[in-house]
Amino acid sequence: MALGNRYKSAPGAGTLAALILVLVFGSPWYSDWVVDNTNANTAGGWWLRLLAWPHWTFNSNDSLREIIVGDLKAILLVVLTALFLYLLPGSQLARARGTISQFFAGWASYIFAGGFAALLTTLFLANPSLLGAFNAAGNGAAYGLFVGWIVGLATLGGYRGTK
């Protein structure tokens, strides 16, 4: 039998889900596969491509700055997810574990983390602009909106911080 929910913290489970999403779907192998094998004009293809948004890469053809910014976005997404999971009070205020507030707190954490990770990494681009930062933040928040429910599900039933 797997470890019960009493041993799982909501922030830890949500952060682990975010890390797995970034490692698997942000990998260069998945990114290449999804571009070659999906159609962006279908709902399924669009969603599979969206999963690859926080991609990380080791391509030697890119400039060092592009590699660092891409990898920083993926790293910040996971770190900011953990931060927002600890800061959002929804699951802390819930009377019982496993309530819908934990789900929404996890989902919201991923939306905020996606938006802020994109916004912050835009500042490190060669020619950052306010419009570019707003567009990037919107793309990051859209990613969090359509993928963050996975993090929300991972947080269900976990305890909040110290017991």
What does this structure look like?
This protein is mainly α and 163 residues long. It has helices at 10-25, 28-37, 43-50, 64-87, 90-93, 100-122, 130-155. It contains seven helices and no strands. It has one domain.
Give short descriptive properties of this protein.
163 residues, mainly alpha, globular
Give the C-alpha Rg: 17 Å
SS element count, helices? 7
Strand content: under 5%
Question: How many domains in all?
Answer: 1
The tally of strands reads 0
The helicity comes to 55-70%
| Topology as a string of helices (H) and strands (E) | HHHHHHH
Distance between the termini: 22 Å
What would the average pLDDT be, to the nearest integer?
Answer: 84
Spatial shape: globular
Unreliable runs = none
List the topology elements:
Blueprint: H1 10-25, H2 28-37, H3 43-50, H4 64-87, H5 90-93, H6 100-122, H7 130-155
Helix pairs in contact: 1-4, 1-7, 4-6, 6-7
Keywords: Membrane, Transmembrane, Transmembrane helix
Q: Can you give me a brief rundown of this structure?
A:
By secondary structure, this protein is mainly α. It has seven helices and no strands. It is globular, with a radius of gyration of 17 Å.
